[in-house]
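forwarding from the other thread:

> can someone predict this with PRP?

sure thing
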Amino acid sequence: MEYITFALGKGRLAKKTLELFEQIGITCEEMKEKDSRKLIFVNEERKLKFFLSKGPDVPTYVEYGAADIGVVGKDTILEEGRRLFEVLDLGFGKCRMCVCGPESAREHLRHHELIRVATKYPNIAKDYFYNKKHQTVEIIKLNGSIELAPIVGLSEVIVDIVETGSTLKENGLVVLEEVCPLSARMVVNQVSMKMENERITKIINDLKRALI
Ligand code: PRP
C-alpha cells in the first residue's frame, strides 16, 4: 500500500485539522511532540504521512502531487489558483475577505475612482475589482499588517481577512464591501483522486459524517 500524504498549513488550521482527524480515527502521535524540528510525520499503521508547510505552499504541494491531500484556507486556494479538486468545507477558520478602509473611502468606491488597494491577496483583489466590479484600481502587494496602509496613506482601501473585526475597530477602519466568505477547505491532487479513489473517498465521507 502506498502512503497517502497530507500537507497542512502551519498554525491554527493545522491544530483544528488534527483534532478533526482524531475524530475519524486518523492520529499522528509523532506530530504532537512539542519542540520537535521534524518536518514530516508518519502513521505506519494506516500508511499516512503528514507535513506542515506555509499556508500558501499547500496548494503547490498538492498540485504537483508531493501531497495527495491538503488542508488550507479558501483565501489561499483563491489566491494561488492551482489546479486541484476542492472537496470539502471543513467549517472552521470561518472569516470573510473584505474591502476595508476609513468610512470616508466609501465615496471613492461608489464613484469607481482610480484608488490604491493594498493587500496580501493581489489576485483576489484584481478579480474582485476588475472582473466583478469593473473598476480600475492600482493594487499594491503587502505581506502583513495590511491595516496600516490606509492609516499611513499608502492606499485608500485594503482587501484583507476580517475575522472578529477587532483589528479594524482598533485602527478606526470599517468593512466597506464583502468579497467572499472563507473557511478551511480540503483539497485533493487530481491524479491522486483517481489513483487512490477508494481511500480518499472514505476519508472525505468519514469527515463529512464527523462534521454533521
Ligand atoms: C489577519 C488579517 C487581519 C486580522 C483580522 O492578520 O490580515 O489583520 O487577522 O482578524 P480580526 O478581524 O479578528 O481582527 P494576521 O493576524 O494573520 O497577521 P498579518 O496582519 O501579518 O497578516
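The CA atoms of residues 120 and 143 lie 5 Å apart. thats all i got for now
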